[in-house]
Write a structure and sequence with these properties.
Layout (H helix, E strand, L loop, with lengths): L1 H24 L5 E3 H9 L8 E5 L1 H18 L3 E3 L2 E6 L5 E5 H4 L11 E5 L2 E5 L2 H11 L3 H25 L5
Parallel strand pairs: 1-7, 2-5
Antiparallel strand pairs: 1-2, 3-4, 4-5, 6-7
Helix pairs in contact: 2-5, 5-6
């Protein structure tokens, strides 16, 4: 099981980096969050479910057609008919949200984000406290709580343990 999970997570990261390199060619530097963002921040921990990307409102508006074309033509994804900003394919869903929409869950200040370059792909990742806020605030939503509550609570518990250990709480 652990080997399968590790292989799955590596596949998700490969697809993410392929997408980010293309976004970079469009002069877009995305923000990663969700299970992938947390895994990239903390290292391997748990199964990465999908790829969640935050784009600035301007990048979303100016590049959405190009992103759509790349995902559907080059990466062979299809748009999720129930969610206009989500794509399905290669066993790994990809979803996009704008900075304005994510701010309903957490404050995002671009100057405070860590810029990362990995295998020729440049992206930002949220801070640990921002990841924690997204999962904590997400549980306030009844649909999210019913659909992903157990996973979200597990991630919240893990982040809190990580922070406590890092701050010397588990000596």
């Amino acid at each position: 099981m652990k080997t399968f999970q590790l292989q799955h997570n590596k596949k998700v990261v490969r697809i993410f980096l392929e997408l980010v390199r293309e976004l970079n060619r469009m002069s877009v530097t995305p923000i990663v969050y969700g299970s992938l963002g947390l895994a990239l921040f903390l290292g391997e921990r748990g199964r990465v479910n999908d790829i969640d990307i935050i784009l600035s409102n301007a990048n979303f508006r100016n590049h959405w057609n190009d992103i759509y074309e790349f995902l559907t033509n080059q990466m062979r994804y299809v748009i999720d008919p129930e969610h206009k900003q989500e794509f399905i394919g290669r066993d790994i869903p990809i979803s996009f949200i704008t900075v304005d929409n994510i701010r309903k869950l957490v404050a995002v200040n671009m100057r405070q984000l860590k810029k990362i370059t990995q295998n020729g792909a440049t992206y930002y990742n949220l801070s640990l406290s921002q990841h924690l806020a997204i999962y904590t605030n997400g549980l306030l939503n009844k649909f999210r709580r019913q659909k992903r509550g157990k996973d979200d609570r597990e991630k919240i518990r893990y982040v809190r343990q990580y922070v406590a250990k890092k701050n010397g709480g588990d000596r």
